[in-house]
Amino acid sequence: MVKSNEEKINELCKLLLEIGSLLMASGANTARIRVTILRIANAYGYNAELLITHRALMLTLYDEDKDYFFSRLKRTSPHGANFRMVSGISRMSWRIVEEKWDFSQVQQEIDRLKSLPHYPRLVILSMVGLAGASFCRLFGGGHIEMLVAFVATFVGLFVRQGALKKSFNAYLCIFFAAFVSSIISGLSVKLQLGEHPDYAFATSVLYLIPGIPLINSLSDLLDGNLMNGMVRGIHGLIIAFSIALGLLSAILIYNI
Q1: How far is CA 115 from each of CA 84, 164, 224, rounded to the nearest angstrom?
Q2: pLDDT of residue 4
Q3: What is the DSSP string of 133-199?
Q4: Alpha helices by DSSP H, the chain
Q5: Binning pLDDT at 50, 70 and 90, where does residue 131 land?
Q6: How does it sit in the membrane (predicted)?
Q7: Would you list the domain boundaries of the chain?
Q8: 3-class DSSP assignment, residue 18
Q9: In this structure, what DSSP letter does residue 116 have?
């Protein structure tokens, strides 16, 4: 069955918005999203105008020769970090240009990227815990402080993941994680475990630092995407405030 021009542009618009939504949810900056979507649209012979906000994407595809355009809006998923998705979509966009993929091939590749397995939860918790212990070592902590930092980071991330699964507000999840990590590491300060227990206390929440939002905020501001840059910057500051509030709560409880 031969598709009409309207059906083709509708299907392409849906694919492009899904790609943009995946990039946004995976931690890509505004410039990368815009370049990737325009590259794919141009590969199929259409021009595109894209409006990118923190929570939604609006795309207009148009064909100047046929004097036809189509607009569509899509809300984005909660933001996180998935660089495998970002790099996979980037490679896919170039293959679309070079190998002239049809829409079904693009959809199959999107489905494949979405189905890629994540690392097991225990592996993620252990690796992030080791990262927390390593930060503690860099600050000058000994073996006891490193162990405390590992346990605090491990349990804090476990609590955050559990809170996210229960659909708590994202900032509350950060607060819960920071509070639990601070309570665990603060106990070592209260009991004076090790020579410098304050090192474990200070580094037990570093896994929550919003590096990606702050980096993307600066990148967007430098690229001239001022609205997205400011929104992402404020998002990062609210995360930082949630971390600080969790630390403060533990300090007040232990009076340290």
Answers
A1: 12, 20, 34
A2: 65
A3: HHHHHHHT--HHHHHHHHHHHHHHHHHHHHHHHTT--HHHHHHHHHHHHHHHHHHHHHHT-SS-HHH
A4: 5-25, 30-43, 83-99, 103-115, 121-139, 143-165, 170-191, 197-203, 211-223, 226-254
A5: very high
A6: Multi-pass membrane protein
A7: 5-115, 121-254
A8: helix
A9: P
- Angle in degrees, CA 239, 244, 247, rounded to 5: 130
Say whether 69 sits in a helix, a strand or coil. Answer: strand
| Residue linked to tokens 């400011």 | 230
Q: Is 90 exceeded by the pLDDT of residue 194?
A: no
Percent with pLDDT over 90 in the chain = 63
pLDDT given for residue 66 in this prediction = 63
Higher-confidence residue: 197 or 69?
197
Residue 106 near residue 94, CB atoms below 8 Å: no
Q: Which amino acid is at 125?
A: L
Q: For residue 236, what are the CA distances in angstroms to 20, 79, 217?
A: 21, 12, 9
Nearest alpha-carbon partner for 27 in 82, 93, 66: 82
